[in-house]
Write a structure and sequence with these properties.
heterodimer, A: mainly beta, six-stranded mixed sheet, 12 strands, B: four-stranded antiparallel sheet, globular
Chain lengths: 112, 114
């Protein structure tokens, strides 16, 4: 079965610093991959997605992610973090095209 | 505006009581999902439905029940058999069968045990 691993539970960065959140997946074929963001007490919002084509995907709020098949990774990046980016971030992969499987999440804290 | 509405925002359950969480969508989506969120465990799928009058168990269905009598509605009942119901519950919907389509999420219901 497909699975998603987010190895970092909690990351702290200074405002203006660069950010990389890691995501590794387990899937035999080309996966459908997503990054979602969740503010406290709220639902999830899609940041970006990958299903084919260019391996560097641009999303909302200045985020991007790169699909690396050789490393089974789909890491999320942002060149300069803003205080409003503090939230929880979830990587997800589609299983059997009808169920979205989520990683355990990475909580991002931003210091001024 | 189209979207997903979950109610109530906060819910309290007494010992041995069944409670029902509401989820309504006006996006004309075929598929609807219920996820449970616990700190450090991410989102785990409880039940999902791809079409009216049909639904499937997810990874943690025990102690929960659902119905899908209308396309717009997918209520979740947390039964007394669920011994650890305290969690944040999220409902979502999507266009069925198209993995390129994103999930739309409600704003969640926090369930606590009295």
């Amino acid at each position: 079965a497909q699975s998603v691993t987010q190895p970092d539970i909690h990351i702290t960065v200074s405002e203006g610093a660069s950010l990389e959140l890691r995501c590794n997946y387990s899937y035999g074929a080309t996966p459908y991959l997503f990054w979602y963001v969740q503010s406290p007490g709220q639902g999830l919002q899609l940041l970006l997605k990958y299903f084919s084509g260019d391996t560097l995907v641009q999303g909302i709020k200045g985020f991007e992610a790169e699909f690396k098949r050789s490393q089974s990774s789909f890491n999320l990046r942002k060149p300069s973090v803003h205080w409003s980016d503090a939230a929880e971030y979830f990587c997800a992969v589609y299983q059997d095209t009808d169920k979205l499987i989520f990683g355990t999440g990475t909580r991002l804290q931003v210091f001024p | 505006d189209g979207g997903i509405t979950q109610s109530p925002k906060y819910l309290f359950r007494k010992e041995g009581q069944n409670v029902t969480l509401s989820c309504e969508q006006n996006l004309n989506h075929d598929a609807m999902y219920w996820y449970r969120q616990d700190p450090g465990q991410g989102l785990r799928l409880i039940y999902y439905s791809q079409i009216v009058n049909d639904f499937q168990k997810g990874d943690i269905a025990e102690g929960y029940s659902v119905s899908r009598e209308k396309k717009e509605s997918f209520p979740l009942t947390v039964t007394s058999a669920q011994k650890n119901p305290t969690a944040f519950y999220l409902c979502a919907s999507s266009i069925f069968g198209n993995p390129n389509e994103k999930l739309f999420f409600g704003s969640g219901t926090q369930l606590s045990v009295l």
